[in-house]
Amino acid sequence: MKTVFPLFAAGLMALAGCNNKTQEVAPQGTPAINLANLDSTTTAGADFYQYACGGWMKAHPLTAEYSRFGTIDMVFENNNKQLKELVEGLASTPQTAGSVGEKISKLYTLAMDSIKVNEDGAAPIKEELETILKIGTKSEVAQMVATLHREGMSPFFALYVSADEKNSSMNIVQLYQAGLGMGDRDYYLQDDETFAKIREAYQTYINRLFTLAGHTPEQAEAATNAVMKVENGIAEVSFSREEMRDSEKNYHKMSYADFVSSNDALDWDTYFKAMGLENIPELDAKQADYYKKLAKVLKDISVDDQKYYLAFNLLDMASPYLSDSFAQANFDFYGKTMSGKQEMKPRWKRALQTVNSSLGEAVGQMYVEKYFPASSKEKMLTLVGNLQKALSERINSLEWMGDSTKLKAQEKLSAFTVKIGYPDKWRDYSALDIQDDSYWANIRRSAIFEMNYMLADAGKPVDKSRWYMTPQTVNAYYNPTTNEICFPAGILQPPFFNPDADDAVNYGAIGVVIGHEMTHGFDDQGRHYDKEGNLVDWWTEDDAEQFTKRADKLADQYSNIIVVDTMHANGRFTLGENIADQGGLLVAHQAYLNSLQGQTPAPIDGFTHEQRFFIGYATLWAQNIRNEEIIRLTKMDPHSLGKWRVNAALRNIDAFYDAFQIQEGDAMYMKPADRVNVW
Question: Cis link prior to 495 (omega < 30° from 0)?
Answer without folding.
Answer: yes
